[in-house]
Write a structure and sequence with these properties.
By secondary structure, the protein is α/β, with parallel strands linked by helices. It has one domain: Alpha-Beta Complex (Spore Coat Polysaccharide Biosynthesis Protein SpsA, Chain A). The chain is about 35% helix and about 25% strand. Strands 1, 4, 5, 6, 7, 10, 11 and 12 form an eight-stranded mixed sheet that branches. Helix 5 packs across helix 6 (about 195-200). The chain starts with a strand and ends with a helix.
């Protein structure tokens, strides 16, 4: 069994908007609808846990809107809707603990990546089922510089570097143990869940990600994601 934890617990500070970015409307539907839909139609996913901001204004109304838009999907895989924590790591932990079914595998995905496809979800899940842990990556195409106070302090090049995406899929018990290990080490704000497995000394298998699996981070990302989502929706119509 593969469950999905979709993390929408952040408030989108870098977007400088009052509404969490995951609930912005695109083509008449909340952005998060498109994210959930990909997992809903994926044949490899059996259930979904959605993690939302704990102190979000008018949260019930926004969630009701999402649920209404998902009503056309059968069977309904969204089984849990829970509050997130003060960090992404804490929000993921809350989602993992909410999975009372105790699945064998769990896919952890950022809600702000609405262009994820069922094909990518299934590719990463199949790799995890074979190797225990898998994450999608795309190659770095440009030279990377480390900077500080407006100056270059190191050149990392691009060889051996990759950009990591979600969903990241793991054996459920393994990622639980990795979170426990991080807590004991005092780590509270890991950049992603694969990092926690790295700290625990576990191997992670890489699969090829998708170029358009973009994450909505800044306001300037929104027009690009809107255009790509509109095109994807048109192709599905």
């Amino acid at each position: 069994m593969v469950a999905a934890v979709i993390v929408a617990g952040g408030i989108g500070k870098r977007m400088s908007i009052p509404l969490p970015k995951q609930f912005l409307e695109i083509k008449g539907k909340p952005l998060i609808f498109y994210t959930i839909r990909a997992f809903q139609v994926s044949e490899v996913i059996q259930e979904i846990c959605l993690v939302v901001p704990a102190n979000m204004e008018d949260k019930e109304e926004h969630i009701k809107k999402v649920l209404k838009d998902l009503d056309n999907f059968k069977p309904k895989k969204l089984r849990y809707i829970i509050d997130g924590g003060s960090t992404r790591q804490e929000s993921v932990w809350n989602g993992l603990c909410a999975l009372v079914s105790k699945p064998k595998y769990v896919a952890i995905h950022d809600a702000s990546r609405p262009l994820v496809t069922p094909a990518l979800i299934e590719k990463v899940a199949r790799a995890a089922q074979r190797y225990g842990a898998a994450v999608p990556v795309i190659p770095v195409r440009d030279t990377i510089k480390r900077i500080n106070e407006g100056k270059v302090i190191a050149t990392l090049g691009k060889e051996g570097l990759a950009i990591v995406q979600t969903p990241q899929v793991f054996l459920y018990e393994a990622i639980l143990e990795a979170h426990h290990f991080a807590m004991k080490k005092g780590i509270k704000d890991a950049p992603d869940d694969a990092y926690l497995l790295e700290l625990a000394g576990k191997d992670i298998f890489l699969v090829e990600g998708e170029e358009w699996n973009l994450k909505l981070t800044f306001a300037s990302d929104l027009p690009i994601i809107e255009t790509l989502l509109s095109k994807a929706c048109h192709e599905k119509d």
